[in-house]
Amino acid sequence: MTPKNEAELAKIIAKADTPLRIQGGGTRPIGAPLNCPCLTTTGISGIELYEPGALTLVAKAGTPLAEIETALDAEGQRLAFEPMDHRGLLNTKGTPTIGGVVAANVSGPRRIQAGACRDFLLGVRFVDGQGRIIKNGGRVMKNVTGYDLVKLMAGSFGTLGVLTEVSLKVLPKSRSTGVLLLEGLSDEQAVKALSRALGSPYEITGAAHLQKGVDGDPVTMIRLEGFENSVAYRAAKLQEVLSEFGKFTVENDQNRTTAGWQWVRDVVPFHNRDGDVWRLSVKPSDAPEIVNNFSGVEAIYDWGGGLIWLLVPGNSELAASEIRQAVATKGGHATLVRGGYSVGAFTPLAPAVAGLHRGLRQQFDPKGLFNPGLMGQVA
What we know:
Layout: H1 6-15, E1 21-23, E2 38-40, E3 47-51, E4 56-60, H2 65-74, E5 77-78, H3 87-90, H4 98-103, H5 111-114, E6 121-127, E7 133-137, H6 147-153, E8 162-169, E9 171-172, E10 176-183, H7 187-198, E11 204-210, E12 219-226, H8 228-241, E13 249-251, H9 254-265, E14 276-281, H10 287-292, E15 298-302, E16 307-312, H11 320-329, E17 333-338, H12 351-364
Parallel strand pairs: 1-2
Antiparallel strand pairs: 3-4, 4-8, 5-9, 6-7, 6-8, 10-12, 10-13, 11-12, 11-15, 14-16, 14-17, 15-16
């Protein structure tokens, strides 16, 4: 089902009496595939309002992300939270939509400095499980109210309502980018270097370490953005701060730096490779130890080590329960992004938290229509 507007969507939901699989462009399937009708928002598309001077954009949920990025680029602006494209990692087709980005709270390497998708969300419109059209928040920053419900919808994966419109804060693009690069560091050394860089006053906008870079060797990457003179100054100072780890080189070519961070953002090293892919959220200082507990895996560290992308080969005997236990012991959580879904994509919730989630879903979706396969996993 592909409704063409919000009113048509509301009628479909109001009349529905069986579960629905809610999706945007179909690029980020989460949880077990459900044997139920698919309800997509791709027909509800278009940029409603864009005010570059006010740094705000309002778009219908089914608007392709590429269309939004093209409009922003023409004005020298961008989505600062740097949403990733999951298609290569998940081997999916379709077109990423802005509603899908918000529903999954998709945020890239710049999150460490700029914040997550939900931090740029000003307002939403959505249809709840009874077919009611609900508006929360505002269209521009000066009129924003009711942040709680707006933020609740970000990362709810279509379980509380079907988004029809989102309002976002946007920011100017950087004039210049510089990336400090160093090959050969161990995971432990790299995370220490990234932590030291992030603890400095030099405004890091990207901090990643790959066990296998383009040349097959470990590579540590630190990104700086801003005016050219500022980037050059901060790069020189960072080299002094990090001198004990080795001699970093600085890449300033804009095409190469952009491509390099898209490589990290979209987890390109794991494309077209067999095995399960996990997304681990942990304390950076614990990250190397957690990865070292698993044999035969490959890791990409982003957010200074706070985010680990883990590739587990198909022939590995490593069980999902082992991964989740190792991460939970350190106070983190693990999401199965690609692989067998018999264990569930998300870490099972504690009973008390699961009760809160059930209460929320009862309020927003009393008939249990929306993505029931995620019940007890996300709000």
